[in-house]
Amino acid sequence: MYLLYLDASGHSDFPSPYGKGKDTNYVLGGLAITDDKWDLAYKGLEEIRQPYFPSHPPLVPEVRYGDLINKRGLWNTLTEAQRKDFADKVFDLIKSLTPVLFVVKVDKPQHFLKYQYSSQGVEPPRLLALRFMIPRFSKFLQRVHDRGMMIYDSETVRNDAPLRDFVFKGRFAGVVLETNPFYDSTAPYRTQNKLEGILESVFFVNSRESPVMQLADFCSHAAWTHFERSKSDRFNEIRHLLDHDGGQVFGLKEWP
Questions:
Q1: Residue 32, H or E segment
Q2: Which residue ranges make up each domain of the chain?
Q3: What are the tens digits of pLDDT across the range 120-162?
């Protein structure tokens, strides 16, 4: 069984002059591992973290790529060389787990311009990205003849009312799996295709308590940095993990 951990990077708000957001791209990343690799992820991350923060309990501080590279919180106590070494080891851990990676990138200004005159308004990037993510995971599971679960950072959903409603209602009525060009506020709660292989809908965990969610954060932030800032070294390290088959990449969706 595959566990797909979902983590987003970038602000969901549209940037000026369409909104108050500060960036152009919104990225939803998905890191899928088989259930037998969870312990390897936990032990591997703790082995990396412990030498740097020996007096702190496991998974403290929370390992988030944005905090590390921007020297926020306890990460400010490490030198530049230590932070780079830490990041190197985390990306090596990710690659050693041989996960399957999914990335959905939404160019927010282009998305807004494309649908600003639709009668239903412009679909929020977070909802759009999730709708693009789910069928990719479902089709992957069909292709490998396996089942899977989706796991989302509970803090993200708690702080975003529309996304919270989208996901929770989707648990009972399904979610739209086909492109919805003219956003319909009721559409997210209608299932248009079968979610083959996906158990339930989406489960929630606190990223502070989930080592794999923290690894997913590294992947989504690396993808966001690639699209937003054209800094691609880290994303290029994990690009080969994107879901692919027969020479075709299915794990990356760029919208529009």
A1: strand 25-34
A2: 2-255
A3: 789 889 889 988 998 899 889 999 999 998 898 877 666 666 6
Return d(Cα 214, Cα 153) in angstroms, integer.
Answer: 10
- pTM, 2 dp: 0.88
What whole-number distance in Å separates Cα of residue 181 and Cα of residue 242? 26
- In three-state form (DSSP H/G/I as H, E/B as E, the rest C), the secondary structure along 69-94 is HCCCHHHHHCCHHHHHHHHHHHHHHH
What CATH class is the domain 2-255? alpha beta
Residue type, 93: L
pLDDT tier for residue 188 given thresholds of 50, 70 and 90: very low
Spell out a b/e string for 226-235, using b for 16 or more CB atoms within 10 Å of the CB, else e.
bbbeeeeebb
Helix axes 108-115, 125-144, angle to 10 degrees: 100
Report in angstroms the alpha-carbon separations of 148 from 34, 136, 145, 161, 253.
9, 12, 10, 26, 20
